[in-house]
Design brief:
- The protein has 98 residues and is mainly α.
- The protein has one domain: DNA polymerase, domain 1, CATH 1.10.150.
- Helix 1 packs antiparallel against helix 2, helix 1 runs parallel beside helix 3 and helix 2 packs across helix 5.
- The mean pLDDT is 88.
Length: 98
């Protein structure tokens, strides 16, 4: 799939993913995904963007369970992007940990 099929240029795709990350509809997940996206989308390669987009498509409550360690992460989502999100989730003093 080329960049046009994924929503345009890489820059446009990153902006679209940032918007989606901040507005998933589950407050804690919005905060975690939004913070991660702001800090990392600019450096993710196409494979990383694909992984992030796949995580955005997963159900909120399942993703939150994976991030908190309450549920096992399915193999399809157990990748470097998820590891980065999980690292963000564990940060002390963040709004989602308050």
């Amino acid at each position: 799939m080329d960049t046009r099929e994924k929503g345009g240029s890489s820059e446009v795709r990153r902006k679209r993913l940032l918007f989606r990350a901040q507005r998933r509809g589950f407050k804690e997940v919005d905060l975690i995904f939004g913070a991660y996206a702001q800090d990392h989308l600019s450096v993710l390669d196409e494979a990383g963007l694909d992984q992030f987009e796949a995580l955005l498509a997963a159900p909120d409550h399942e993703v939150y369970g994976w991030l908190r360690g309450a549920e096992d992460v399915p193999d399809a989502f157990d990748n470097s992007v998820f590891a980065g999100l999980k690292s963000y989730c564990g940060r002390k003093g963040q709004p989602w940990n308050a």
